[in-house]
């Protein structure tokens, strides 16, 4: 808390001149003011306590001086001493660190309480993903099997019909008809198989 001021040039000059503005002051008060102005505060300048300023104001009023205290304090600053922080108790610091770690751990547990290590995402677990991959693999194999079967039926019919038909159009038409029949039969089997798998689920 502030209890003194750093004296400015105006106050120092007024106190230095014996017959100047403060010439009417009592000798004891002048000596006290000069002693205060002679002391330096940590290299910043002379300090004048508030109690001395109150005495100075009262003496100026009694003497009927034309100089007011606020005029003498021009250029002066309130001196705020630096507050020294007491050293922290190591036991308290350790306890605070322990409490911070505990709170951080509780916060982490609260955030991750609904997360399962087996869970991949919000749509299912790793087991569900494996089931979906196997199902997708079966679908891809079935489609590949369908395409190979239809192409093979077309190729076999086209090559085999050269002994029956001599014209190219008849050979292609017979190959397309046989491939279509084989494709429809393959689709029927595929649909029945998928119905059975879906029914099993």
TrEMBL record:
Main location: endoplasmic reticulum
GO cellular component terms, semicolon-separated: COPI-coated vesicle membrane; endoplasmic reticulum membrane; endoplasmic reticulum-Golgi intermediate compartment membrane; lysosome; vacuolar proton-transporting V-type ATPase complex
Domain of life the protein comes from: Eukaryota
One Pfam family matching this protein: Vma12
Keyword line: Endoplasmic reticulum, Membrane, Transmembrane, Transmembrane helix
Membrane topology of the entry: Multi-pass membrane protein
Membrane spanning residue stretches: 138-160, 172-191
One MF term in the entry's GO annotations: oxysterol binding
Coiled-coil boundaries: none
Keyword set includes Iron: no
Compartment list: Endoplasmic reticulum membrane
InterPro entries tied to this protein: ATPase_Vma12
GO biological process terms, semicolon-separated: cellular response to increased oxygen levels; intracellular iron ion homeostasis; lysosomal lumen acidification; lysosomal protein catabolic process; vacuolar proton-transporting V-type ATPase complex assembly
Keyword Iron-sulfur: no
Protein name: Transmembrane protein 199
Organism per entry: Terrapene triunguis (Three-toed box turtle)
High-level lineage: Eukaryota, Metazoa, Chordata, Craniata, Vertebrata
Gene: TMEM199
């Amino acid at each position: 808390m502030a209890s003194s001021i750093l004296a400015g040039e105006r106050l120092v000059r007024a106190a230095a001149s014996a017959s100047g503005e403060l010439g009417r002051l009592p000798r004891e008060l002048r000596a006290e003011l000069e002693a205060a102005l002679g002391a330096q505060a940590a290299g910043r300048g002379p300090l004048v306590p508030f109690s001395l300023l109150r005495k100075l104001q009262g003496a100026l009023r009694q003497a009927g001086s034309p100089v007011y205290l606020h005029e003498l304090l021009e250029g002066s600053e309130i001196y705020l001493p630096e507050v020294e922080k007491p050293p922290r108790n190591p036991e308290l610091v350790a306890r605070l660190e322990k409490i911070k770690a505990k709170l951080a751990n509780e916060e982490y547990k609260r955030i991750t309480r609904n997360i399962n290590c087996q869970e991949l995402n919000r749509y299912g677990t790793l087991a569900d993903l494996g089931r979906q991959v196997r199902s997708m693999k079966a679908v891809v194999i079935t489609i590949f099997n369908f395409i190979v079967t239809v192409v093979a039926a077309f190729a076999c019919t086209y090559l085999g019909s050269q002994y029956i038909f001599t014209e190219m159009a008849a050979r292609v038409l017979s190959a397309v008809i046989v491939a279509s029949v084989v494709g429809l039969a393959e689709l029927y089997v595929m649909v029945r198989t998928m119905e059975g798998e879906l029914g099993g689920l």
